[in-house]
Each structure stands twice: as C-alpha cells, then as structure tokens.
Amino acid sequence: MKTSKKNKYIISLKNVDLTYKSNNTKVDAINDINIDIKEGEFICILGPSGCGKSTLMKIMAGFMNPSRGKALVDGNKINGADHDRGVVFQQPALYPWLSVEDNVKFGLRMRRIPKKEAEQRINFFLDRIGLDEFRKLKPYELSGGMKQRVAIARVLVNDPKVLLMDEPFGALDALTREQMQNLLRHIWNENKKTVLFITHDIDEALYLGTKVIVMSKRPGRIIKEFNIKFTNYENTKNLSDIKYSEEFKNLHNDILDLITGR
Ligand SMILES: Nc1ncnc2c1ncn2[C@@H]1O[C@H](COP(=O)(O)OP(=O)(O)O)[C@@H](O)[C@H]1O
Ligand SMILES: [Mg+2]
C-alpha cells in the first residue's frame, strides 16, 4: 500500500474540467477545478443550481472521469466507486425490501466483514442516528428524515475516509432539515469524519462547514473559499445565536453578493 508523504490529501482535484458530450451537443459543466480535502475537514460546496456541483461530486465518488485534469484519492488516481468514499444523495437510495438494519448491514455483508464486528458497528451507528428502536421497519414505514438517517448510517458503518453528500437535506421540511443539520454537525464534532457537503443554501454551508467553497454559474469554477468556524461552536452556542450574529450575517451577505454577482 502506498503511504508516502505526498498523500496529505484524502481527495485532490487538479485542474479538473468536465464536458458532457452527447450526439452533437457539448455541455461544459465544470472548469479548472482545484480542491484539496484534508483529513477532518468539513467542506461545503456552494453554488447556483446547474453550476456543476453534482458533477464534481460524481468525479470524487468515481462515477465519472474528468475530461481534463486529475482526480486523486490518497494520491492515487480515482478508479471507480469504493466504500472508502461513502455517498449520500438527496433522495436516499435504500433497498425497499430490506429493514433499516439490513439496509445498514448490506455493505458490510458485501465486504464479508465478520458477523460480530458488523453487528457492533451497526448497533453503534443505529444508536448514533437515533433509529435503534426502528431497526426492523422497512423504508416505506419511515419519514423522509428517518430515511436520510439510514442512508447516512449506511455509509458511516463502512468507516469511509470521506463522506460525500449531495444536497442530502434538500428534500426535507425546514424543521427536519434543522434536526438533520444538528445531527450531522454533532457526528462531525464527535469524530471529525471528513465530509464534502454540497448545498445551494448559504446558511446551511456556513453553519456546517469548516470551509465553504463558492462556485460560479456554469461552467462551474471556484470563485472564492472561506474558512469558517461556526461548526466548532457546537457545545457553546445554539443555532439561533449563531445565525443572528453579525459575523454570520456579514458572511451570508458577502457570499450572496458573490453568487448573484451584485
Ligand atoms: N449526463 C448529462 N448530460 C448532459 N448534460 C448534463 C448531464 N448531467 C448534467 N448535465 C448538465 O451539466 C450542468 C451541471 O449539472 P450538475 O452537476 O447536475 O449541476 P448542479 O448539481 O450544480 O445543479 C447542468 O447544466 C446540467 O444540465
Ligand atoms: Mg446537483
């Protein structure tokens, strides 16, 4: 296994372009993207709809190769999907015929993780996401927020190097969304699992991320990066204290200006 010093980044995109080509049409989705993700970072990618955020994540997940540039995981070329990069989408893709517990177990079974260890991991994460008592239910018996919790547990149980989340709370109602933000923030503060989180919600990005990367409209380029510290206040300040602070409001406005080009 390669463990040289050069692997200081979990994921690196270097000068990445992606152009979709079909028949006679070409769509330049992202352009000259450079991102380095360090262990323990919580990076939020923020940008208008259609600017190439999902495209970027699909490249990191290994679903697509860049048209130009390099995509690396631990210094090696990303070569397809792997459980070391756990993906959570806006619509949780659970197996409808499996219980909560079996959905979470699925990846571990595929990887032939010993039964006892698998059970321990599943119990730990079902407890962490507050679904222990619902473990026997099927997805159709769960609310949207609960389904999304299962989707998160299902990737965390594999102990991925990085959690790749594409607008994971975008389809939830406002209250559930806030609960899920708090849960994710709590999980991150507990074990500093590296996260790449895509959103078009400025407040969500500011509240959760240690770094917010702002993209331009398509073809998506990085226009600015902000180092953010609100997520570290988990134990000292509540959400409304943060959201109504001057510092938060100023950052919100700066980012809004960038995105809308005001
Ligand atoms: N498979 C595809 N074929 C052609 N164009 C695509 C494809 N997927 C996405 N696009 C286009 O690429 C651009 C970026 O898409 P996407 O990455 O999904 O943006 P975002 O997630 O920021 O909304 C959009 O203009 C979209 O229509
Ligand atoms: Mg998208």
From TrEMBL:
E.C. number(s) listed in UniProt: 7.6.2.9
Keyword Transport: yes
Name of a matching Pfam family: ABC_tran
Keywords, in A-Z order: ATP-binding, Nucleotide-binding, Transport
Taxonomic superkingdom: Bacteria
GO terms assigned for molecular function: ABC-type quaternary ammonium compound transporting activity; ATP binding; ATP hydrolysis activity
Protein name: ABC-type quaternary amine transporter
UniProt source species: Clostridium tyrobutyricum DIVETGP
